[in-house]
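BUG: 3D viewer hangs when loading the predicted structure for this chain

Environment: internal workstation, default settings.
Expected: structure renders.
Actual: progress bar stalls at 90%.

Input used:
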Amino acid sequence: MTKPWFFAGGLLFGAAVLCCGAALAREAPPKGDSPAAREAVEPKTGSKAPVDSPAEEGKSATPSPPASPPTARPPALPVAERLAVARQAVEELRYDDALATVSGIGPDAPPKQRVQALELRAAILLIRGRSVVAQSLLEELFFLAPAFRLSDPSLPPRVTKMFEEEAARPHKRGVVLELEAVGTDVRRFALRAGGATARVTLACRAGARAPYLPMATRLERGRAEFRLPNAGLFHCHAVAFDRDGLPLGRFGTTRAPFVLRSRPPPVAPTLTERWWFWTAVSGVVVSAVVVSAVVLTAQEPPPDADITVQIPSSTTASLVRW
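C-alpha cells produced before the viewer hung:
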C-alpha cells in the first residue's frame, strides 16, 4: 500500500511545475517577432511604437497646447452697482453676501455712496444684534450727514431705535434752520442756515391730503429766501445740504411739518397814531402857553417908579423929587 505522504509530495511537485510553465509563457515574446506582429500587438495594448531617432520622435509626437495665461480677476463693480447688489442681498436675507459687497466701499468713495454703505453695514449688524460694532459706524455716518434719515423706516425697532438715538445727538456739522420774515412783502420769508450749507430745499402743500410740491429758494449770505404762491395756509418742511448733497439740518418733516402763512397786511395808523399829529398838538400847546403868559403880563399895573431929576443951577443945586 502506498503511503499518503508520497501522494502529497507528488501533488505539490506537479503544482510547482504548472506555475513555472505559466510564468515562462508570460515572459516569452509573441510568435513571429516581426514589425507587423509588433504593430498588431501595440494597438491592442495602447503602447507607443518605438522610434528610430530623436528627430523621428519629435515629428511623430503630438505637440502640447500652449500654456494659458493666468486668469485675471474680474474688475470691481462700480460703487453704485455694488450698493444695488448689497440691497438685493439684504432683501433676500443673504446678510453675509451683503456685508462682503459693501465692506470695500471706503472713505475714497463719493460721500453720498459712502453714507449709503455705512447705512447698510450698520443696519445688518444691528439686525444680527452686534450693536457695539454698529455704533461706531453710526457715529461716522452722522458725522458726515447730521440730518440723515433711514431710507427704509420699516426695519425692526432694534435698528430704527439706534438710528433715531444717534440722530437726536448734537453733531459738529449740524445746522439749525430758523424762519424769519423778509421786507414788507407779506408773503416773503427766509430760512437762515449757516455752517457748510450750500443749498436749501423746501417743499410745501396747501392741505393735509395734498402732495408736497417743491418751492424755489435762493440762498444768499446764509439765508434761503422764498415767497409763498398765495396768501393761504401751507404745511412745509426744509432740508439744508452741503456741496456733496449730504443733509446737514432739517426744519419740519413730512409727518410733522411747520405751518406757514402770509403775514397780515400792515394796518393804516389812526389819526392819533401818526407822528405829525402829536407834533402839531405839542406846537399848539406851547404856543398857547406863550400867548397866555404874554397876555397876563400885559394886564398887570406898572410898578411904582422912584425917579430923581437933577436940574443944574448957577446958584443952587436944588433937587426936585416926586
